[in-house]
Amino acid sequence: MTQIRHQPVAPTRTQKMATGAEIDAHRHDDHQIVYAGRGVLTVTTSRGSWVAPATRAIWVPAGTVHAHQAHGELELHLVGLPADDNPLGLGQPTVLAVAPLLRELLLAYTRAPLDESPERARLRAVLLDQLRASPQQPLHLPTPTSPRLRDLCDLLRADPADDRTLAALARQVGAGERTVSRLFRADLGMTFPQWRTQLRLHHALVLLAEDTPVTTVAHRCGWSSASAFIDVFRRTFGETPGTYQGRRS
Fold this sequence. Notes:
Blueprint: E1 5-7, E2 13-17, E3 22-28, E4 31-45, E5 48-52, E6 56-60, E7 66-81, E8 94-97, H1 100-109, H2 118-132, E9 136-137, E10 140-142, H3 147-158, H4 166-172, H5 177-188, H6 192-209, H7 214-221, H8 226-237, H9 241-248
Parallel strand pairs: 1-3
Antiparallel strand pairs: 2-7, 3-7, 4-5, 4-6, 4-7, 5-10, 6-8, 8-9
Helix pairs in contact: 1-2, 4-5, 6-7, 7-8
């Protein structure tokens, strides 16, 4: 059985991680805001995974067992908040939009010196105000609990470009299309097309963080064309994949 590390206090700091590096499953007694100022971060729990480029942060509630993985050269900014200070009122991991002001606040607050000065207290207050106003983003890729649904999802995780219909995928795992369609809604809270799009976007962010060309990303993630991929990416993240990659460099 894997040992889960317990860190009573969620640290506030900046940390650099090489691409592919991981932080094993652990939990804090405090809440934590996790922000990748550079690269792409994946946070994984038993309920699924959340992915965040530099325009997103991830809220991790106190007590949540979670692991991190870096994609690209990651610059990680961590903000710990006491368990009784939940400005968002959220009880599960959530992806939040990071506007330019919130980004600068996160960078400044995690920069040394990490003291208890009045200036730093004022900075924290503004940071919390901006977090309260930050829109939540639907970038959660839930993990199925149903064995048949898990087998089907594993097929697509292994190859996000797999464009088979739900009926064909269901047959491969020995289930009916209607049964699997109901399982997606009941178990994951989304339709099959919604889940597959989320999976492809997650995979696309990882590939872009590794400097994979946009056309190649579109192909490897299953979009019919680069333009179709660019359209979905822009509607989800507010910028094109090319702009996103250019801003990272």
